[in-house]
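FAQ: What does a ligand-bound record look like?

Like this one, built around flavin-adenine dinucleotide:
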Amino acid sequence: MRTVLVLAEPDGAAVRKATLELLTLARRLGEPAAVVLGDAGAELVAVLGRHGATTVYEVPPADPVAAMTDLAARVSPAAVLLESGAAGKEIAARLAVRLDAGILTDAVDVTAGPDGPVVTQSVLAGAWLAESQVCRGTPVITVRPNTVTPQEMPVEPVVTAVPSPGVAPVPAARVVSREPKTATGRPDLAGANVVVAGGRGFGSAEAFTLLDRLADELGAAVGASRAATDLGWCPHQLQIGQTGTTVAPQLYLAVGISGAIQHRAGMQGSHTIVAINKDPKAPIFQIADFGVVGDLHRVVPALIDEVRERRGGMSS
Ligand SMILES: Cc1cc2nc3c(=O)[nH]c(=O)nc-3n(C[C@H](O)[C@H](O)[C@H](O)COP(=O)(O)OP(=O)(O)OC[C@H]3O[C@@H](n4cnc5c(N)ncnc54)[C@H](O)[C@@H]3O)c2cc1C
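The answer part, i.e. the structure of the complex:
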């Protein structure tokens, strides 16, 4: 069976959930092997092995593209899978150029076909699903988070340290400063299981903070429509949609969001959608599983109280 390389992206000392999803998908195509930048460490190796990685390649972190190009040339994989995030997409694009191979990004599904991986993409603002295949070289595929539920398939991985490809990386850019992201204690938006998103319906930045309270009660990530981010009620990184982040949580709460097609493009893959909107004709209700027609300034505080009461009830 041919190897399928999966780039393992770190999440602090652990690994991102999206990497475990990629390992699950990789099993459909061949034998999954994880690629770790730098030393993997026993704990990380154990997690990757539990999710089916038969080999863990430790590659030099200085130039991940050169290291992965070199590795791909050695193992001739059936495909290379990466997360469809900023880092994964950048590495994927440069890797595909160096391998002279085809690339498909933002996959929402990957299956095995007779001539290699078949990639499903959600296109035209989510109105269509397109199936494509790479027809040149090693398929390089980036996959959106939350495409599958990670499944365990424990194996004992072989850890292989890959020597440096030998070419000293030439810095193409100079880092002049670094600003750590302010920790909110909330889950990462792209991979969150629960997302509460707010829109222009909140009416003001002050009212928008209600959403933070709801998120904290639910252990959710906060997201927003473009209107809310453009109004400066929350950072642009929280925008969900065609030109923002794509999410597919188990639960998506759209509060004061009309449901424009560009917003839906980034959240309609959510498992259960709940909408709170005062306009019963708002388009968001067309894709909502549950809807509350009402004024969010009354509904959200009541919801916060209810969640708090039920959680209190559970812990007592
Ligand atoms: C090229 C392009 C790309 C775009 N990309 C994105 C994108 O990535 N993401 C995105 O979100 N948008 C995007 N947009 C913008 C998009 O078209 C919409 O304008 C935007 O999503 C609207 O945001 P909204 O739903 O918050 O605001 P609105 O459309 O103004 O809706 C506000 C909603 O709040 C409801 N409401 C008002 N008051 C209350 C209340 N008190 N209680 C309950 N409900 C209330 C209203 O009934 C209404 O349905 C893009 C547009 C273009 C042209």
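Follow-up question: can I read anything off the structure? Yes, for example: The radius of gyration is 21 Å.
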